[in-house]
Amino acid sequence: MRPEPGERPAASAPNQMPPEQTQAGTPWKQGWYAGARHRVSPNFGARPAGAVLDLVLLHSISLPPGVYGGDSVERLFTNTLDWDTHPYFQTIRGLEVSAHFLIRRDGDLLQFVSCDDRAWHAGQSSFQGRDNCNDYSIGIELEGLEGQNFEPAQYAALHALLTALLENYPLRFLAGHSDVAPGRKIDPGSGFEWHHLSDLALQWQLSLPQG
Ligand SMILES: [Zn+2]
Predict the structure, then answer these.
(1) Is residue 27 part of a domain?
(2) 57 alpha carbon to ligand 1 midpoint, in Å?
(3) Residue 129, in any domain of the structure
(4) Residues 7, 141, 143, 146: which is the catalytic one?
(5) CA-CA distance, 56 to 78, in Å (whole number)?
(6) Does the residue 32 lie in any domain?
(7) CA torsion angle 90 99 56 210 (round to 10)
(8) What is the domain extent for residue 198?
(9) Which residue spans within 51-172 are E strands per DSSP?
(10) Which of 100, 138, 155, 156 is the most buried (most CB within 10 A)?
């Protein structure tokens, strides 16, 4: 995907750091997941008061598009990407974006923003009549490209992550970026196979995109 321009920062952006350890018995502490490697992004803000976290948005991303295995995405999300190292980066120079999670091609899981906070992944968006999906969603990026397939290791990592999220948050809906920003976004793309998540949808009464 091509990330969208930076969004408004929240009025108060807590200076939050990931915990060194989680409490015994739960993989979560202050929105940070113990099963992920933590890379703290400055691109986040507070969720609106009373926001109900009921949506997971799936994305695909690679930088440059279609090139896998480098550290460009985590650099983008942590504002440490050197814009001069590739011509494509010139087209996104200055972008300040983030997602809560990134799943690499080998299933490696990174977390950039506490799920208790608002990451900047959806941009202008609407889901079932509600605008500003970033307010009430968790954003998961899969290293990939629209139209291409994803790796079995990514589906396995996504399945495990979603299970942990479902045990901790009142999630009701799974959707793709293309579902909440039609005409503007096409990720995660036709190569993403939603049926890999159908058992979770059944077990947790989650709604998946149609078709
Ligand atoms: Zn996206």
Answers:
(1) no
(2) 8
(3) yes
(4) 141
(5) 21
(6) no
(7) 10
(8) 39-204
(9) 55-61, 101-103, 109-111, 117-119, 126-127, 130-131, 137-143
(10) 100
Total domains, the chain: 1
pLDDT tens digits, 1-45: 454 554 544 444 444 555 555 556 799 999 999 999 999 999 999
Is 146 a residue of the active site?
no
Measured in angstroms, how far is the CA atom of residue 180 from the centroid of ligand 1? Answer: 10
pLDDT of residue 4: 53
For residue 59, how far is its CA from the centre of ligand 1 (angstroms)?
Answer: 4
- CATH number of the domain where residue 66 is located: 3.40.80.10
User: What phi and psi, each to the nearest 5 degrees, are found at residue 141?
Assistant: -100, 135
Cα of 32 from ligand 1 centre, angstroms: 21
* Domain annotation covers residue 3: no
- The answer to whether 42 and 97 have CB atoms below 8 angstroms apart is no
What does the pLDDT look like over 54-71, one tens digit per residue? Answer: 999 999 999 999 999 999
- Assigned token pair, 30: 């202050």
